[in-house]
Amino acid sequence: MLLGEQENVGWIDFVPGENADTLIEKYQARLTELDTSQGVLFLVDTWGGSPFNAASRLVVDKTHYEVVAGVNIPMLVETLMARDDNPSFDELVAIAVETGREGVRALKAQPEEKPAAVAASPSAPASAPHASRPLTPDDHMNICLARIDDRLIHGQVATRWTKETNVSRIIVVSDEVANDNVRKTLLTQVAPPGVTAHVVGVDKMVRVWNNPKYARDRVMLLFTNPTDVLRIVEQGVDIKSVNIGGMAFRQGKTQVNNAVSVDEKDIAAFRQLNARNIELEVRKVSGDPKLKMMDLVAKVSA
User: Fold this and answer.
1) Quick one: pLDDT at residue 110?
2) What is the reported pLDDT for 128?
3) Contact 37, 61 (CB under 8 A)
4) What is the pLDDT of residue 230?
5) Residue 228's closest CA among 191, 199, 253, 197?
6) Which member of 4, 45, 199, 258 has the greatest number of CB atoms within 10 A?
7) Is the pLDDT of residue 299 over 60?
8) d(Cα 21, Cα 151) in Å, to the nearest integer?
9) The pLDDT of residue 263 is above 50
10) Which positions fall inside the PTS EIIB type-4 domain (predicted)?
């Protein structure tokens, strides 16, 4: 080890099938073993990933609690060493950010000179203006991906699915999350560049679907469970395929593969969606082979 054993430092693991709620429980358990009187600094991998999202929910209303994303060896080493000089909490955060940034470099590549600043043109609107022709009730948004993933917006969604579907909006559809102001705020902040994130309840999603203002917008819908998908489908939202990317294991659920666990309510919703000829396919990322959700359900229902 570069620095030897360190005091008052904790770590957690993150394994397939877990989500932000699981990570929060792990964080809280680890924090009970540490002295947090001077603050807590989380060093996590990626901005918007599940470790970041879970840590953000813990730090949002606490003084001297912070999350720094993009952890690398220089950041970790310099931050741990700096503690010997008794810096203030804000100074320690600044050290982590600065050393992490400076620690990323290439041996042969030379830094490019930045061109002179040019006056910025007015920013484009969040969504392209629609044609002036009258819109009909049949003009709806283009749902490029409907995904069940109880981690919601995290690394795989932000980096892979968003680029491959070329969406301009991510809409989280959940009554529970829409009524949680902390989670709602954090989710709208972790969308990748060029994409806007929204959090709405199920009924509001139906109203948005029927609003011609959003006609032809390319969107991704994210759900935490299949029941919410069924609710909007029953109210007329046209979904032809649902990707199941992650449903964490918890008491009362049965694991059908390393990323998806279901209970009887989930199974009932999946069966009703399947009866409507909606494709139900399981993949974490687009490059994975498609698994049929109903085949997995059949194995646990047998």
Assistant:
1) 65
2) 37
3) no
4) 98
5) 199
6) 199
7) yes
8) 8
9) yes
10) 139-302
Helix %, strand %, coil % of the chain (to 5)? 40, 15, 45
Rounded to 5 degrees, φ, ψ at 43 are -110, 115
Q: Which two tokens stand for residue 75?
A: 């950041």
Res 130: pLDDT: 45
List, in order, residues 6 or more apart from 52 with CB less than 8 Å away.
Answer: 44, 45, 46, 67, 69, 190
Average pLDDT over residues 246-273: 93
**Class of the 20-102 domain?**
alpha beta
- 10 Å Cβ neighbour count for 62? 11
Residue of 85, 80, 93, 84 lying closest to 41 (CA atoms): 93
CB 23 within 8 A of CB 54: yes
Superfamily of domain 142-301: Phosphotransferase system, sorbose subfamily IIB component (3.40.35.10)
pLDDT at 190 over 90: no
Average pLDDT over residues 69-90: 86
Rounded Cα distance between 96 and 84, Å, is 14
What ranges do the domains of the chain cover? 20-102, 142-301
Active site residue 154: yes
Mean pLDDT is lowest, of 1-15, 28-42, 109-123, 206-220, for 109-123
The number of beta carbons lying within 10 Å of the beta carbon of residue 222 is 26
Q: 43 near 83, Cβ under 8 Å?
A: no
Report residue 198's pLDDT band, with 50, 70 and 90 as the boundaries.
very high
* Pairing relationship of beta strands 241-246 and 40-44 according to DSSP bridges: unpaired
Listed in order, strand segments (DSSP E) in the chain are 40-44, 65-69, 142-149, 169-173, 196-200, 218-223, 241-246, 254-255, 261-262, 279-282, 291-292
